[in-house]
Specification:
alpha+beta, 3 domains, 5-stranded mixed sheet, 14 helices, about 35% helix, about 25% strand
């Protein structure tokens, strides 16, 4: 880790992000342009995300499976809007085993088609429904402009795919999974999100309705952080997914799909980070606390390390993810800065004087400097740390929510709207017409992020064209 300072977020937010991802050892650039190597520290965050989501999926009746990476090209072509939406992003395999393939294969961009093929075989009767399956995998989309975690050719994610007997059941499932993502973002990642419905232009290719959670990053831009799609009967008809109902009549199923990816790590970085580096929400942090031993002599080192190991083991026994920084040839100050860069929620400073007093120095990452430091007794330290981690989690959420509220405006004029989306979100009435949406995008670079599920009610005039409008939308510039 270099001791050079990061660019400040106010100077160059994009470069701050790029350097931080690499220097905090979250990810690195791969030999293939646009791909990334997720390093152990970054993967540990993803593992914690996986565990938190997987627990929620299973609690709602979903099970995990695995489907092939390679998909026949003809499968992708079966659903017209799906192939049109994904064609520019497809990676195609034409040679296998040294021979040209009879049919090209698509490297999975998403799995609706291959899973639709399987569901058509597995579903015969209403008794087989619903099918509620999720898979953890990677997918490939040939992006032209890439950024580590946020937009890469290959990325890791989960994708849920379900089949139902009725339109009502499919809509309930779609909304339920949106709620799961919202709950995860708020309670695990400390990120306030806006759940809502996408405009027709922003829907997933082949979906009847798409819902999303949208988050505001530290530069005021939006990041789509999770999506849930009601696919209607589009894929059921394309792949002949049918069942015999209770009356013996053959019916098409109603299907859904939903996903969250490693781009959510990018959201955590950009929502919570500061000029010193990452600030990890405790519930997803790879480490809750790091012990930095402080000593001047070999005799002091032996005593401090012995006390540090004992303390570490006690904390780990209480499910507090803890590490001792045993690196040689580095000053305590260097180590402090390094762990600040990596965003570990708590730093525990332990020296000879602390051992003599039976105390440690606790330093909170969310409060840099003296404000975040305090002495704490070694006896009962696990309980103190657990309480402090809960406080940090709550503090990060409240800080992010206050930032979003401060930078979300309800402009009265289109000029005010233009100014609002330069630095944050605009909550405005919108007529719902695609032409109007496209003109706003051309003129301001802002898009309809979503139409929030929570509406203030009433009527208004479209912020752009002035036509009557019944819903407000969140507009913003996005990653």
């Amino acid at each position: 880790m270099s001791d050079l300072k990061l660019p400040t977020r106010s100077e160059d937010f994009s470069e701050w992000y790029n350097q931080l991802v690499v220097r905090a050892e979250l990810a690195d650039y791969a030999p293939v342009r646009g791909c990334m190597i997720v390093r152990p520290y970054g993967w540990a965050i993803w593992e914690n995300i996986q565990q938190a989501l997987d627990k929620r999926f299973k609690a709602t009746g979903h099970v995990n499976a695995a489907f092939p990476l390679l998909i026949p090209k003809s499968f992708i072509e079966k659903e017209k809007s799906h192939v049109e939406g994904f064609s520019p992003e497809l990676a195609v395999v034409t040679v296998g085993g040294g021979k040209e393939l009879e049919e090209p294969l698509i490297v999975r961009p998403t799995s609706e088609t291959i899973i639709g093929h399987a569901y058509a075989k597995w579903i015969q009767s209403y008794r087989d429904l619903p099918i509620l399956i999720n898979q953890w995998s990677s997918v490939v989309r040939w992006e032209l402009r890439t950024k580590l975690f946020l937009r890469t050719l290959e990325f890791f994610w989960q994708e849920g795919h379900t089949a139902h007997a009725t339109a009502e059941e499919a809509e309930i499932e779609t909304r339920k999974m949106l709620d799961v993502y919202t709950d995860f973002a708020v309670n695990e990642a400390a990120i306030p999100v806006i759940p809502g419905r996408k405009s027709a232009a922003e829907r997933f290719a082949g979906a009847q309705e798409t819902y999303s959670i949208e988050a505001m990053m530290g530069d005021g831009k939006a990041l789509q952080s999770g999506t849930s799609h009601n696919l209607g009967q589009n894929f059921a008809k394309a792949f002949d997914i049918r069942y015999l109902d209770k009356d013996g009549a053959l019916q098409y199923c109603w299907t859904t799909s939903w996903g969250m990816s490693t781009r959510f790590i990018g959201a955590i970085i950009m929502v919570h980070g500061d000029d010193q580096g990452l600030i990890m929400p405790p519930r997803l942090a790879p480490l809750h606390a790091v012990i930095v031993p402080i000593f001047k002599s070999d005799e002091e080192k032996a005593r401090v390390m012995e006390a540090g190991v004992k303390l570490r083991d006690e904390l780990i026994a209480e499910n507090i993810r803890t590490k001792i920084d045993e690196r040689e040839g580095m000053t305590p100050g260097f180590k402090f800065n390094d762990w600040e860069l990596r965003g570990v929620p708590l730093r525990i400073e332990l020296g000879p004087k602390d051992i003599a007093k039976g105390t440690v120095v606790l330093a909170r990452r969310d409060r840099p400097g003296k404000e975040g430091k305090c002495f704490a007794p070694q006896a009962g330290l696990a309980q103190i740390i657990s309480t402090t981690l809960s406080e940090i989690q709550k503090s990060l959420y409240e800080r992010a929510l206050a930032f979003r509220e401060k930078n979300t405006h309800a402009p009265r004029t289109y000029q005010q709207f233009k100014e609002a989306v330069e630095t944050g979100f605009a909550l405005s009435f919108w007529c719902g017409e695609a032409k109007c949406e496209e003109q706003i995008k051309e003129e301001t670079k802002a898009t309809v992020r979503n139409i929030p599920l929570e509406q203030s009610g009433g009527r208004g005039q479209c912020i752009h064209c002035g036509k009557p409008a019944t819903e407000q939308a969140i507009f913003g510039r996005a990653y």
